[in-house]
Specification:
The protein is an alpha/beta fold. It has a domain at 128-167 and 266-383 and 414-451. It has helices spanning 26-37, 54-58, 113-126, 138-144, 171-181, 233-244, 249-252, 303-309, 327-335, 354-365, 415-435, 446-449, 507-524, and strands at 2-4, 12-22, 42-45, 62-64, 89-90, 153-160, 185-189, 192-197, 207-211, 217-227, 265-273, 286-288, 294-301, 314-322, 375-383, 392-399, 405-410, 438-442, 457-458, 490-492. The strands form three sheets. Strands 5, 6, 11, 12, 13, 14, 15, 18 and 19 form a nine-stranded antiparallel β-sheet that branches. The radius of gyration is 25 Å and the shape is globular.
Amino acid sequence: MIIDLEQVADGQLWVNSAICIVGGGAAGVTIAKALLDRGVDLCLLEAGGTKTELAQQALLDGESIGAPIRLDEGRFRRLGGATGSWTGRCAELDPIDFERRDWVPGSGWPIGLDDLRPYYRAAEAMCGFGEPWREHVREFERLAAFDMVDEAIEPFLWRFAPHGRNRYQDWGSRYLAELRRSRRAKLILHANLTRIEDSADDNHIRAIVAESARGGSVRVEARHFVLCCGGIENARLLLNAAITASGPLRAVGQTTGHYFMQHPRVKVADVMLDPAGMGLQNLLNRFVVRSGTEYETGLVLRDRQQRSEQLLNASAVIRYAPRPGSLRDAIQQLRAGTPLNRIRMTAPRQGVRPGDFCRDVWRYARGVHPILADPVASVVVDVEQAPDRASRIALADSKDSFGLNKVRVDWRIADLERRTVAHFTGRIREMFARQGWGSLLPIAGLEESGGLTAEHMMESYHHLGATRMSATPATGTVDADGRVHQLANLHVCGASVMPTGGHANPTFTIVALALRLAERIGKLAAPVLTPTVDG
């Protein structure tokens, strides 16, 4: 069943359900589907509609007072959330990411990789992989076979969840029909959470209230509530709720919002490819094989190097682009809508043959990754962040149209992140020279600034840690099961519960955490059968 709260003008709905999920992104949709598969009744509240709406996006407005962050990008108030712009890039966290590392203050999860591994396997199906991840990928084996002679760096493989003819995953479109058909699900659109009702008498949430911009509202009572509103919004909503709380919910505001992290992403070097390096596109690249499966190979810091040099986790990929003025560049500009009279072409550099371009077109037609005849190559690094209590999400003084305080983000980047990027880049430079692939050309001003400045960084939109998982309420918001420490029936799911982020894109881990939480609350919400005696 689907209800659009904007069609309930100036009226209030009352809903009672076993589980109430707030937020219809990757985490919320995953939990909803898993619970429906278990036969559990649920209510799923989504702040937006089924498509991106400017009025909803405007509610993401806030303040950035630390390292710059674009609050209006990478976040979507619509069914499917950020999956509407997710390419499906998947990787598991590494074992070291879960460990307490003496040189990384605040590190360590209350669970380990073994606790999450079964849910990673289940996440493959949720993400649309038709078969288990293949362990043997030709391109990866070819790269791994190289004698890198490097104790610091090793190859890494990312897999892309299938998305058919669509550019992005968009789980809102993928699972909308299933939610509409289900008699156990109530999907309520344009339902913006405005109040969480706790009690001074016990540690339970009684109900939540959500409103639409047109005056309609819904009050939901449930046995369990789950916030799945994104890495920033989860914290903002809890902090707002703590202001008006009458019971244990007030204490949630003491730790929520702290330890906010991202994956700082920076182009660390351009690559001047040597003749031997032209074949690098067959080693380090994004590959499309004939089955339609996509992979990407790159480089990561070995865990023993992280330990010996006291560094953070980090990964690097090589990005290839057509040389400006080339035929391939002209075609890309045309496809992007650039007028023909504004496109400028230059003669190919010496040694580039027309047949190379024809080969590129032929490979593309066969569904195989292109090999650019004369590419511009660059090295892009993603680095883990060390948890920092001063890096935080707080509330601004200004309010949104629903009367809630807007968000204020003070994102901090520390010297440990800068040192990791510098060390990693240096080892990659040495490897390229040793293999004869080419030279890494430093980016102007990069080394002087440490690399992680607004001038050089790119947005990753990986918002982590602000409602982190912890063993005690003193250092986090939720426990090892995703339950808010002070409350028996309020849970949080998403990248915001991750105590550390490794180097991997977080969505695959978000799905695994969501499946783990769904299993737990599904058991808690199962109907109690009262024994009866016949006769």
